[in-house]
Structure formats: structure tokens, C-alpha cells
Inverse folding.
């Protein structure tokens, strides 16, 4: 009887030791599928737009002498893009500069005369009328200098109108003129967009607009990258009577490559909270049409199981079907697959 009991104890101890050895011998880490509070989202189609889009027009008249950029060229802010003839404008600048210099000389002479008369007047050697004439001459000289300065600034501005510059950094979309053409004020020269600041517009059904307004959160889902959270949401204050939708605009963060105006993307607006079953994103394996995870049983036996996945972010993937809360999954599918082959050969 004692021998039988000792054998049972030994078998139990050995079995526990073997289980611990098996658990410790897994060549990969595991994680448990759990329910997690997350945002309930409304996914809609969105369109990429450029925040800065403009058509540059001529501010003066003249013949085009130079076109520095063409369609699809990248232009830095303030770069010269079109240059017009400037012979007449330069002549006006020279004339205005000469008038300004003359007015400066006249003011210096008037101030010197005013100082001389003031000194003599202080000694009662000239009349009040002479003092008043000197004061008036000085004030008139100052006014002529101010007028000359304004004329000079205007002439320089007219000269600058012959040098059309880019209002922001971006890409040239259209070029409307050719070298040698004569243009007039207001005539379009080039159109361009900036890729530094982009935004998305989407049409939200009116039954969801109140929830979208309340949460004010949206995420952009792209095919070849992780989801990108948007920034400020702007709501148009009226509904389209044809579609019963509200236009919503969301600003994208800067520095996102691969996005261009006109592209279509998916936009997920937060409309509430819900619980969802999630596993780490690293545990999910995608093979052609198959989406699966390696499930680790209580006995550390590994088997491949197909799942139906939902929303995925940078950390977790939602599991819609194929897995239950509390089940363990392998975090390294490649090592788990090799371990499964070794397990089948035992």
C-alpha cells in the first residue's frame, strides 16, 4: 500500500515537472485574447484635398520675359515663377528715387534756414513774419519728402509686380501663359497646390452627425500603412438636401508621404464606445485570403486557427470570429509554425 502511494506521488511530481518543462520550453511568447473598451466607429469614404491651393494672377501689365517653372515642378515659397518686362517700371523707380533725393536736399536746406532764422528771432533781429515763413518752408519741405517717399514706394511696388513669386511651397498644376505673351492685371498665370498641408472631406449621414460632433475624433485608414489620426474637425453648418448628409472636413498631420489631392481613403469617425475582443497585432498572420493565429492550448499544444479580423491599430487587432476571450495566441507566428511542425513529428 505504501509503495503504491509513493508511486502515485512520484508520478504526480513528475507530471507537474514535465508540464512546467513543456511550458518553459515554448520558443515564443504568448498573449491572451481579452475584451477591451474601444471606440465605435463609422467608416466612410473620404477625399484628400490640399489646404493651400491657389491661382497666381498678374498684378500688372507687360510682356512675359521668363517662366521659371512648369507643370509638376516643385516650387519653394517666395521663388520667382514668372518675370514680365520692366523697362517702364524701372524708369519710374529711377524718377521716384531722383524726386526723393531732391526732396531730401530741399528739407535739409529748409531745416538749416529754419534754424538760422530761429537763432536770429531769439535775439529779436527778425520779424515774426520771417519766422513764420521759415517754419512754413520747413513744414512744406517735410511734406514734399513724405510725398516723394510714398511715390518711391509705389514705384518699387509696381516694379515688384513684374516679378511674380510663389505664395507658398508646392507643386505647379497648370501653366496658362507662354513666353512673349502680353498679360493684363488679373490674368491667371499659374495654378498650384501645397502638399505640406492636406485635409480630408467626407459626407456624414444626418443620423450620425450628432454623435460625430460630440466625439470629434476621426482616423484615416490607408491600404499600405497604419491608421493615421486626424487633427481638427470642421463641420459645415448645413445639410445637402439631395443626400441628407453633412460635409465634415478633417485636417491631416504634416509629414505624411504618399498622399495626394484627389485620392480616396477610408475615414473612421468615432460615434461611441464598445467592447471588442482583441489580440496583439503581431500575433495575426495573413497568408493570401487566410487570416489566422496560432492558438496555444492548456497543454501547450499549438494549432493554427482561422479568424475573422476587424479594425486594427498600431498595437491590437480586433477579432470578430474564431477566437474566445482567455485563449492564448503566439506572438511570433513564424516560430509558432516551426514549433507546430516539430510537434506533429513527435
Amino acid at each position: 500500500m505504501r509503495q503504491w502511494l509513493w508511486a502515485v506521488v512520484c508520478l504526480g511530481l513528475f507530471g507537474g515537472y514535465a508540464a512546467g518543462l513543456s511550458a518553459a520550453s515554448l520558443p515564443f511568447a504568448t498573449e491572451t485574447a481579452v475584451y477591451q473598451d474601444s471606440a465605435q466607429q463609422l467608416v466612410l469614404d473620404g477625399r484628400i484635398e490640399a489646404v493651400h491651393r491657389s491661382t497666381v494672377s498678374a498684378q500688372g501689365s507687360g510682356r512675359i520675359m521668363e517662366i521659371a517653372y512648369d507643370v509638376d515642378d516643385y516650387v519653394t515659397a517666395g521663388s520667382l515663377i514668372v518675370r514680365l518686362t520692366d523697362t517702364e517700371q524701372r524708369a519710374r523707380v529711377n524718377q521716384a528715387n531722383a524726386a526723393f533725393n531732391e526732396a531730401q536736399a530741399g528739407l535739409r536746406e529748409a531745416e538749416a534756414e529754419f534754424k538760422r532764422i530761429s537763432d536770429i528771432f531769439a535775439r529779436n533781429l527778425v520779424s515774426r513774419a520771417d519766422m513764420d515763413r521759415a517754419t512754413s518752408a520747413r513744414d512744406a519741405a517735410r511734406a514734399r519728402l513724405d510725398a516723394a517717399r510714398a511715390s518711391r514706394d509705389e514705384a518699387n511696388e509696381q516694379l515688384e509686380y513684374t516679378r511674380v513669386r510663389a505664395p507658398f511651397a508646392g507643386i505647379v498644376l497648370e501653366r496658362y501663359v507662354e513666353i512673349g505673351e502680353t498679360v493684363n492685371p488679373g490674368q491667371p498665370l499659374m495654378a498650384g497646390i501645397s502638399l505640406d498641408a492636406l485635409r480630408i472631406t467626407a459626407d456624414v449621414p444626418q443620423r450620425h452627425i450628432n454623435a460625430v460632433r460630440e466625439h470629434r475624433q476621426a482616423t484615416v485608414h490607408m491600404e499600405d500603412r497604419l491608421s493615421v489620426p486626424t487633427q481638427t474637425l470642421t463641420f459645415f453648418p448645413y445639410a445637402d438636401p439631395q443626400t441628407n448628409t453633412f460635409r465634415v472636413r478633417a485636417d491631416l498631420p504634416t509629414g505624411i508621404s504618399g498622399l495626394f489631392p484627389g485620392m480616396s481613403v477610408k475615414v473612421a469617425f468615432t460615434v461611441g464606445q464598445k467592447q471588442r475582443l482583441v489580440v496583439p497585432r503581431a500575433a495575426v498572420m495573413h497568408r493570401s485570403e487566410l487570416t489566422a493565429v496560432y492558438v496555444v492550448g492548456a497543454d501547450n499544444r499549438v494549432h493554427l486557427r482561422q479568424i475573422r479580423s476587424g479594425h486594427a491599430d498600431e498595437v491590437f487587432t480586433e477579432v470578430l470570429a474564431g477566437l474566445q476571450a482567455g485563449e492564448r495566441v503566439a506572438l511570433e507566428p513564424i516560430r509558432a509554425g516551426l514549433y507546430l511542425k516539430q510537434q506533429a513529428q513527435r
